[in-house]
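Tokens help. Consider this.
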Amino acid sequence: MIPSGMAVSSDGKAVPAAPAGPEPLLKLRGISKHFGAVQALYQVDLDLPAGQVTALCGDNGAGKSVLTKCIAGIHQPDQGEMFWEGRPIHIHSPKDAAGLGIETVYQDLALADNLDIVQNMFLGRERVSVMRFLKEDEMERAAAATLAGLHVTTVRSIRQPVATLSGGQRQAVAVAKAVMWNSKLVLLDEPTAALGVAQTRMVLDLVVRLKEHGLAVMVISHNLNDVFEVADRIAVLHLGRMVVQEKASFFDRQSAVDYMTTGGSTREVAAAGSDKVRNER
């Protein structure tokens, strides 16, 4: 019998076990989802710690969008468990997710071009007085404070229509809209897709600032340059299965591509003491 607090090394000797890390903000265990005869997710495990950026990677059709929508409350898993701050939860709708502090920024951003920045940030959540008048000044101050807190300084005016913003500015507004509601976990779907170099830099800096504010961030991205720049952890889906989730230092670009395209890798990149969590195919 192995003594408490000990583990077995590769040569069969008892050694002190590594201390358990803090409980992830969101923990998924055994999540499965099918659509008719199509099995989109198979027994997926995923940890999303607070104050860290987790990159969710995978080829087209790997199940990234389905998993994201399960977390966001759009799809309900057929099987598996979710734990929020260690408590078991069931997310039945996006409203349930928002109530927990989970906000999602989709690739299309879901912004109204004909409305200004303040109106977009409070769309559907407008602040009104007892007489049902909009509290315009209060909303404007709150929007300005949120943008300033994220160091978004390139917009000319928070009252300019979203249609006049660049791609990077639009992404910044969408992220600011997500984080101003006491959010704890932000899901970003391809946040740098179709952006130029300067705009990509702005968005990546914004992702880092979210982490610095103590939020958990999950970034869905095909761009490995962006992934390795901002991610603390990388999780890879392949054909609906979570084949690896590990610290970013465990991977190099080639091993990440291997996991994304084949579900495995023979390259040894990780340093000793890695806390890898793998589900072998």
Observations:
- The longest strand covers residues 38-48.
- DSSP finds eight helices and twelve strands in the chain.
